[in-house]
Amino acid sequence: MNTLVKRSDVAKLAGVSEATVSRVLNNVGPIREETKNKVLQAAKALNYQPNSIAQCFARGKSGNIGVIVPSFPKVHMLSTYYFSEILSGIGRRLGESNYSLLLVFQPPDQPKNYVQLFQSQKIDGCIILGAKNHESDKEALIHLHHLDLPFIVVNQTYLDYPFHTIDAEHYEGSYKAVSYLINKGFRNIAFVNGSNDFSNSSERFAAYKDALKKAGIEPMENWIFQGNYSRSSGIKIAKEIAPLIPQLDAIFAANDRMAIGLMQGLSELGYKVGKDFALIGYDDSDIASMVNPPLTSVKVPLFDMGKIAAEKIIQMLNHEITEQIHIRLPVTLKERASCCKQIT
Amino acid sequence: MNTLVKRSDVAKLAGVSEATVSRVLNNVGPIREETKNKVLQAAKALNYQPNSIAQCFARGKSGNIGVIVPSFPKVHMLSTYYFSEILSGIGRRLGESNYSLLLVFQPPDQPKNYVQLFQSQKIDGCIILGAKNHESDKEALIHLHHLDLPFIVVNQTYLDYPFHTIDAEHYEGSYKAVSYLINKGFRNIAFVNGSNDFSNSSERFAAYKDALKKAGIEPMENWIFQGNYSRSSGIKIAKEIAPLIPQLDAIFAANDRMAIGLMQGLSELGYKVGKDFALIGYDDSDIASMVNPPLTSVKVPLFDMGKIAAEKIIQMLNHEITEQIHIRLPVTLKERASCCKQIT
DNA sequence: AAGCATAATGAACGCGTGTACATTATTTTT
DNA sequence: AAAAATAATGTACACGCGTTCATTATGCTT
């Protein structure tokens, strides 16, 4: 890789001007077939590869889509089914495009400044994962929005702001989950939610209450718990929930990791899923089918959400989008053995 | 984001030349304190952000480190503890540097050409994950190596080639695992390996045989199975292995996913881990502690491997590395309940 | 065959930065 | 105080490409 082949080399070999080389390679303007062949042949002979940076510089675009991954203390965000699936989806779509995927790990405890990424021209657009309802997060997004920068938020809905978002029907999903339990004959259903920083959580909570009420069941204040979407929080809550088990039929957890934490925690205390209580998780992550009994869960099309997010960002960069994007994908209930408790 | 602030704007406001602005911001050459302050103030006032692309262009470097993620049909590679942990480690280290992380998903079935990424100046160096022993993979790496391009291979060792590699002590890890089983009194130990495309697999296999022989046990040809590191392959192999269970004490699986597949498959056939046979996995992924019984596993410092890979690539780009890198990190055995079978 | 429209190509420049070299201001040396 | 050394700043250009504008070749009309 001593001296890279550049456009001028190709031009010289082909016996044409640099402009012609550029035109041939970019397919612009009318070109005589013969010239075209000469150029292509020369480019091939020299194994010419346009300098991406120079192209970007000349075009005034980076050709990169930034994907912002949040960071939480002690957790490797990517090692979470949720994020990795979305990221895979994004990668799949971008792989089919000419854009590159710039992975940006949001440093913890630092004020978020996505605008800088645009100002420095590092990215042309960005996809934001794991945004919270915090003021600081919202401000960062508002800042982007005010500058009319192309970005899209995945799996987080902001009611008060017209951001472009891709989300899933978490209200419906949770409603389905709880209704499913009710239809199975369970009536005493606890709810273990994740952090309220995410709109997902609020939606799930609302649906939980509504589904119960619809069935004529009054939600019980002390049957509602709050974890942080981690397995350990599920284990912790298991201890609080255990004394209530005699009265409880079922538990609805806001994600699979917490559900598994509950399973494990309660199991240690002598309560078995599918026997002493039913359990339903959320996300339908890979682990749902690995535990015993397998976990009934609400399947969220995370991969597709990533794909669509990438798709939409590309469209935005092509100015093919005029209206606000607010896509919500449907979710489905994946039945497994964790809800098989016999009603007594 | 109408018109971006550029160096000339800062120079004008500060009343100095552009070169001086550049010098102040890059900390080169002697600068009068007063001038420095003027420039910094002007830059701040205008909220100046250097154009990253222009910088890269001028410097002749992209400032990107490419991370190559392989793709296999039907699997989202990232959603695998293995890859996501390594990637997180890489991200952590790069986040502390000035390099950006360009995530490159290797399209399936396409001839690999990493050189192109360098020729187009998209990346300055790269970290390759999931490389195989296939000719095509090796050729791609040899090509890189011949051109003296900075790259490092993670978790794959090539004996015949002087590539830079970061790996873990998989021979020792497997030896430990098998010896552990033997020390616990198990003597009839089956081995379920993953694809032979990976050096990891060969190492594990060799250690399995050696550990047995060391204990005076002759490895049995028909107690050796081959999966592909997926859970479904574990489930499939469970059917083959079931008839042997009466004679078998224990199974050593080359990764956790297959181990869990075995657990599930054998469980369906009536054989319980920790009762009818002992089971030990590999990777110590998050799922190991989620299953029941929890899976004893060999813990591989994937996150650290990623961190070190990034560290080394940065050093290579700084020309701080002269000798071949061939790091192998130690692994440890993580004991859990899956090896508690009572010897009869 | 002259005139004109259009196709095909070349020449020249800008993109925003880093930096080598030239120039001027300041300090040190004698 | 003059000369020399050094600090501080400015000028000019390169980096490799896309692209506008100018120019030349070709084909078509009358």
Question: Can you give a write-up of this model?
Answer:
Chains A, B: InterPro entries: HTH_LacI, LacI/GalR-like_sensor, Lambda_DNA-bd_dom_sf, Peripla_BP_I. Chains A, B: Residues 5-59 form the HTH lacI-type domain. Chains A, B: It holds the Pfam family LacI. Chains A, B: Keywords: DNA-binding, Transcription, Transcription regulation. Chains A, B: This is LacI family transcriptional regulator. 2 copies of one chain form a homodimer. In chain A, helix 1 crosses helix 2 (18-26). With 344 residues, chain A is α/β, with parallel strands linked by helices. The first copy, chain A, has helices spanning 7-14, 18-26, 33-46, 52-59, 81-95, 115-119, 135-146, 170-183, 199-214, 231-241, 256-268, 302-317, and strands at 64-69, 100-105, 125-129, 151-154, 165-168, 189-193, 224-226, 250-253, 278-283, 296-299, 326-329, 332-334. Chain A has 3 domains: 7-50, 434 Repressor (Amino-terminal Domain), CATH 1.10.260; 64-168 and 303-331, 3-Layer(aba) Sandwich (Rossmann fold), CATH 3.40.50; 170-300 and 333-339, 3-Layer(aba) Sandwich (Rossmann fold). The model of chain A has no long low-confidence stretch (mean pLDDT 94). Chain A contains 12 helices and 12 strands. In chain A, 49% of the residues are buried. The first copy, chain A, has a 6-stranded parallel beta sheet with strand order 2-1-3-4-5-11, covered by helices on one side. A 6-stranded mixed beta sheet of chain A has the order 7-6-8-9-10-12, with helices on both faces. At the A-B interface, helix 4, strand 1, helix 5, strand 2 and helix 6 of A face helix 4, strand 1, helix 5, strand 2 and helix 6 of B. The structure holds a DNA duplex (30 and 30 nucleotides).
